[in-house]
Write a structure and sequence with these properties.
Number of strands: 7
CATH superfamily of the largest domain: P-loop containing nucleotide triphosphate hydrolases
CATH architecture of the largest domain: 3-Layer(aba) Sandwich
Strand content: 5-15%
CATH topology of the largest domain: Rossmann fold
Number of helices: 16
Order of helices and strands: EHEHHHEHHEHHHEHHEHHHEHH
């Protein structure tokens, strides 16, 4: 393998790598407010996971969900940072990075060997159901109930669909995080929890600023963004989904309607669904060994983390 490649322009030095549907968008929106932080647009170019590959995802809407915004060429990826200027912290927030572990690590070693990583974990049953609800809300998930979608996943029918469709597999956190810690070292990885982001987003933002090397005392605000749920108005949700699926319309809408206002409209149109009991009863036995493995991994790598782990990791 060749050594790290060099560039004359600004390069990324941190990445938010996942997990999907665990608050990464809310964290990104706090980071964007910091004057010394630059996040790419799009925020999920998926370069680390898909570098130098030919994309061939075949799930419903995968052209909109991942292929349209992904950048697989190194030079083109660096072009996303041309507007970073002298900002000290520069990165993206591709949740594919955590899921496609081996490919991401190889990309990091080759292209960005000193970059820091931020990972945020959510209770896996809630994360899986949130991903399902999100794709249902966007009009892409073909099944009306989670367990039917889970059956498809278990039988391999979604193997060539992109990562967000892998509802259960994406919650196998220990298997995903372990190689990062082993090969890159724990000091380069900041582990966060969705529970803390919900409870005290300002402290999560502050600790993340410190980790990526910018002033942690800069004041920012926090809103819930990129939420999922059942639409109150199907017509309004269909209109939103159409605008987001057409690139030219989406770009024009961003100019006319501020991001936070558009997120507020989407959030108010959603009724938050509880997780059906049968989903919890099906997934909890699957995830219990996974959570034990994650707890052991985290305590081994970060001995001080045990007292701050959420209840779903310690019960």
């Amino acid at each position: 393998m060749t050594g790290p490649l060099q560039s004359d322009g600004p390069e990324p030095n941190f990445f938010i790598i996942g997990a999907a549907r665990s608050g990464t968008t809310a964290l990104v929106e706090m980071l964007r407010q910091h004057p010394d932080v630059f996040i790419t647009d799009p925020k999920e170019p998926n370069f680390l996971a898909l570098a130098n590959t030919e994309m061939d995802f075949r799930g419903p809407g995968d052209d909109v969900l991942i292929e349209r915004y992904s950048v697989t060429d190194h030079t083109q990826y660096l072009h996303l940072y041309r507007a970073a200027g002298a900002r000290a912290a520069r990165g993206d927030a591709s949740t594919s990075s955590l899921y496609y572990t081996d490919a991401t690590i190889e990309s990091l070693i080759r292209y960005f060997p000193d970059a820091r990583l931020v990972v945020i974990f959510r209770e896996p049953v809630g994360r899986a159901f949130s991903a399902f609800s999100y794709l249902r809300m966007r009009g892409f998930e073909p099944h009306a109930d989670f367990l039917s979608a889970f059956t498809d996943e278990k039988e391999g029918l979604r193997a060539n669909w992109h990562h967000l469709w892998h509802y259960v597999e994406m919650g196998r956190y220990a298997k995903q995080l372990g190689p990062f810690i082993e090969r890159l070292g724990p000091d380069r990885i900041r582990v966060l929890f969705y529970d803390d982001l919900c409870r005290d987003p300002m402290e999560v933002g502050r600790s993340t600023f410190a980790f990526i090397g910018v002033d942690p005392d800069v004041k920012v605000t926090s809103d819930r963004v990129n939420v999922s749920g059942k639409p109150r108005s199907v017509a309004l949700q269909n209109a939103i989904a159409w605008m987001e699926s057409v690139h030219s319309v989406r770009s024009a809408a961003r100019v006319i309607v501020p991001y936070r206002l558009s997120e507020r409209v989407k959030r108010l149109n959603l009724h938050q669904e509880g997780i059906p009991r049968e989903v919890v009863e099906t997934l909890q036995p699957i995830y219990r060994p996974e959570m034990n493995a994650l707890a052991d991994l985290l305590i081994s790598a970060y001995p001080d983390i045990e007292t701050s782990m959420p209840a779903w990791l310690t019960n």
